[in-house]
Design goal:
Blueprint lengths: L5 H6 L4 H19 L7 H13 L7 E5 L1 H5 L3 H4 L5 E3 L7 H6 L1 H5 L6 E5 L3 H4 L6 H18 L4 E5 L11 H16 L4 E4 L26 H11 L7 H12 L2 H6 L2 E4 L13 H6 L5 E3 L4 H14 L7 E4 L12 H5 L4 H17 L4 E2 L23 H16 L12 E5 L18 H8 L1 H8 L4 E4 L3 E2 L2 E2 L4 H11 L5 E3 L4 H8 L4 H11 L4 E2 L3 H11 L5 H17 L12 H7 L3 H14 L1 E5 L11 E5 L26 H9 L4 E5 L8 H7 L13 H13 L3 E7 L18 H11 L5 E6 L15 E4 L7 H9 L65 E3 L3 E2 L3 E2 L5 E9 L5 E11 L10 E10 L4 E8 L6 E2 L5 E2 L3 E8 L6 E7 L2
Parallel strand pairs: 1-2, 1-3, 3-4, 4-5, 6-7, 6-15, 7-8, 8-9, 10-11, 11-14, 17-18, 17-19, 19-20, 20-21, 24-32
Antiparallel strand pairs: 12-13, 16-21, 22-25, 23-25, 25-28, 26-27, 26-31, 29-30, 31-32
Helix pairs in contact: 2-9, 9-10, 12-25, 17-18, 17-27, 18-20, 22-23, 23-24, 27-32, 28-32, 30-31
Amino acid sequence: MKMVFRPAIKHLQFNKMKQFGLLLLFALGSLTALYAQHPPFYNDIQSFQQRDRERTPQKGGILFIGSSSFTNWSDVRDWFPGYEITNRAFGGSQLPDLIRYANQLIDPYAPRQVLIYCGENDFAAADTVQTKTVVGRFLTLYTIIRQKLPQVQISFVSIKPSPSRRKYWPKMVAANKAISAFLKTQANTSFIDVYSLMLTGKAQPKSDIFLADSLHMNSKGYAIWQKAIEPVLLKSDRKIFIDALLKKMSLAEKIGQLNLVVGGEATTGSVVSSGVEEKIKKGNVGGIFSVTSPDRVRQAQEIAVTNSRLKIPLVFGLDVIHGYKTIFPIPLGLSSTWDMKAVETVAQIAAREASADGLNWTFSPMVDISRDPRWGRISEGNGEDPYLGSAIARAMVRGYQGHDISATDALAACVKHYALYGAAEAGRDYNSVEMSRVRMFNDYMPPYKAAVDAGVATVMTSFNDIEAVPATANKWLITDVLRQQWGFQGMVVTDYTAVNEMIDHGLGDLQTVSAKALNAGVDMDMVGEGFLTTLQKSLDERKTTEATIETACRRVLEFKYDLGLFADPYRHCDVNRAKTEIFSAANRQAARDIAAKSFVLLKNEKNVLPLAKKGTIALVGPLANTRENLVGTWSVSADYAHPPASLFSSMKDLLGSQANIIYAKGANVHEDSAYEARVSIFGKKMERDNRAPAVLIDEALKAAAKADVIVAALGEVAEMTGESSSRGIIDIPQSQKDLLKALKKTGKPVVVVLFTGRPLVLTDMINDCDALLTVWFGGSEAGAAITDVVFGDVNPSGRLTASFPYHVGQVPIYYAIKTTGRPKNGEGFQKFRSNYLDIPNEPLYPFGYGLGYSAFNYGDLQLSSKNLGADDSLTASITVTNTGKYAGEETVQLYIRDVVASITRPVKELKGFQKIQLAPGASQRVQFTLHPEDLKFYNSELNFDWDSGDFVIFIGPNSRDAKGVTVNWQK
């Protein structure tokens, strides 16, 4: 095997000046030729670039670039724990592809080290390929990298001797030797010899280190690579610090870091950790949630950093869901703004307030897609659509974390609930989920992945099972998908007692389920303490390994290091910040403005709204004078010392002496007092009136008789949605329907202000009002925001992000349906077609729907081309004109339909949206650009790809009323 390729070595022996000149000419010539056309792996690189646009690339780490061996080594970070590695290999690539895209691969990361691997593909491409060609390609790539990053460490992993490419071995040996010789002449370089390590004593490849294809390696093969590569890798300060700390830690202390406890202020469930202080001193606590304020956080932190053996700081978290002290609209309402700047602002303000009060971690955003409004937690999510949900996930992560989670005004985010929690069967909380992987990856997984791509620091598991395995013990979900496929490097935490609840799932006792969760990839156990109390025994019984425990502990420590807690454990304990940055006038104004943007006007006959600021207004309904309910569900930190102003008091403040307001309750929220008691477990008052229903309605009618217009504040109270608040009947309660019917009979204009945390069935009541404004639960400034919209100071611009069903029997309901083999066409019932005997297929109000005080006209849809190829992009544009009397915002929405594909596809999919502001009479040309990347979906093989054929491009004001034009797009 001792073969020396003399021409290549001779090539490397030129003097330095001549060598540099020739290399530069070679590089420039190669780049000129190679950039002239798209390469075979253009789409792979485009995917990398798209991901880098969505996620700020980690700078200063180690960048792996190379061929399919690196690609198949998808869990590369698991082999090198603690190293900050980004793997940007793409399967089947050759050095020309790496050279062509060196700029794109290097620039975003500014790595400290680049590790290059070239596979046998260069030689296998053609028998005529010579070793000097391969060496020349490497020199070109090396020159490009070195010129861009003069001080970067460049390492080359030798080409490996796979049995399937036996005839190319002499060329591989020569290429390896030539490249090694060259690197010895260069500074900051290394050559990693894996070739010889993969051979037996008889110079043959070890038979047990390859897969069946005799080309790619199995875990034994990669273990050889790991031993050869790790000594060459550059260690970051974080890696050095945590390695040293782990060596000092006992097993008990490592397990203790995996324990997240409640500090005495439980916010969910029924378990409150006991003996917290003593556990901290023993090193048995990694983090606490529900402890707030700089003083209390400092007290708890001092116990850890002064009284525990290793002085490891704690992390402090809380459910900061839609604001901290200043509460913003519930997430479903916030999503209805379709305004990513507003979404990001909400998270930024929440982060500033919570971090000023001692916190550094929030269990948000919740990005579960839900198409079943019976599920109470639909209020916490962003609706039914994965594209919009992904955009919101990215915006929330950016808002919470900023560019550096160690900043004193940032919060580490935790995306939840991973995964599929919003698809619980029957809309019943905590219930099972069953669906195909095709549906998972196309419809439910994108928002989680978007959060990961945006750099979310932590991920929370969900309560439900998936494919009969609870998410908290689902290795495929946590390790295979989240870590290996998506490249998540952060910490995974369970939901509240989710480990313990697997006992009721039927997976075994606490020891068994704790080991299952840890082995699946969970790092931190929230509240249940199964890790703390059973992992030592599981280790003794070989049900888990010390390496698995240490890996989880390392991730917890890395999280704390990234938060800056080892540098300053008290970085979030500044009492001065807490005095000035929480519930400020600026924050409250932002809450008011954003709440107004979230309201969705569903009906406005004869332009009843906006109301004039004069005359007499009858304000009636069980929600007209409520305060605590305005903040909605999951507002555990709301400032109840300064409770929100009610709608009644807000209207009085706005109108003053301009108009007369007469208030009457008119009805209780629900006719059943026992029902109201079940709802009000978190202390948000229902303020029940025990007078007879007829008396309450009569009082409202007397008020209405004196009024010019009636405003009825109806709907749900805050805790009728949220966790453990599923409803089987999702219309407004009968007591309120009766009130509304009586008000309609007065003949006075009736405006319904609808409070809700879910899409409701409004079919029975929609004809009993003249206008209907959905205000969700708008937060701290909800009352003022509602008056802003009702009286015309703000033109409503919210659009639905979840369809409102015609009847609960349609649920689950969403716009992106399939046609089926027997689609319903036209109006009315059609026998032997997919429809109901008694109700329509369509929702009452579709996804994307909403009105304003202006009207917008859409012109003809224009396309840049109707015949496109694989490298083409499509520009779609339309002119929108404000034909009304008011300036207003319009959300222009773009959808596509894949007409012919390898699997069944939805009739429409959102692929773009823009919010525009137009003055009366003004027009604007709105333009979208689509790329082949936008056509991709997960096919039956779970490959993310697209099919050639016809596509319909739609643009319009909502998913129902969009104009479509067909194009043909070929690969």
